[in-house]
From TrEMBL:
It comes from the Bacteria. One of its GO terms (molecular function) is glycosyltransferase activity. InterPro entries: START-like_dom_sf. The keyword Glycosyltransferase applies. Gene3D superfamilies: 3.30.530.20. Keywords: Glycosyltransferase, Transferase. This is Orotate phosphoribosyltransferase.
Length: 130
């Protein structure tokens, strides 16, 4: 299952956006309200959305300054969340979140709505990048 967030344009440099997303603690600022968030290490955090099981994400890869890849730490729900970061101008950047998960048809049907809303909220909240 592949999902895409709307493209978000930020008045920040590509490097600033990349640095923000490479800091695991900053994902707490991007999460929807009332989301459980717990930093486990510098490359791992746990979050829990209402009505969904808690998920542990690992920072899998960072390609300066164009891509940040997070992935599920467990094989039970295998997925990756990639932030594609594109420079438009020196201080203007576009970010799009891409979700790729391997789910059976039943599971995909159940999680598509909540995950689409989740990555949409993460994208909207990127205004906090300072």
């Amino acid at each position: 299952m592949n999902l895409e967030s709307p493209v978000k344009t930020l008045d920040k440099s590509q490097e600033e956006v990349y640095s923000f997303l490479m800091n695991i603690e900053n994902f707490e600022k991007l999460m929807p309200e009332n989301t459980k968030f717990e930093k486990i290490s510098d490359t791992r955090f746990l979050f829990g959305l209402k009505g969904m099981p808690e998920i542990v994400l690992d920072l899998k890869e960072g390609i300066p300054h164009s891509k940040v890849v997070l992935g599920a730490a467990s094989d039970k729900i295998p997925f990756e969340l990639t932030a594609d970061i594109k420079e438009l101008e020196a201080s203007k950047t576009e970010v799009q979140l891409l979700f790729q998960g391997e789910f059976n048809a039943m599971m995909a049907m159940m999680v598509k709505g909540p995950i689409t809303k989740f990555i949409g909220t993460l994208s909207e909240n990127m205004d906090v990048i300072a």
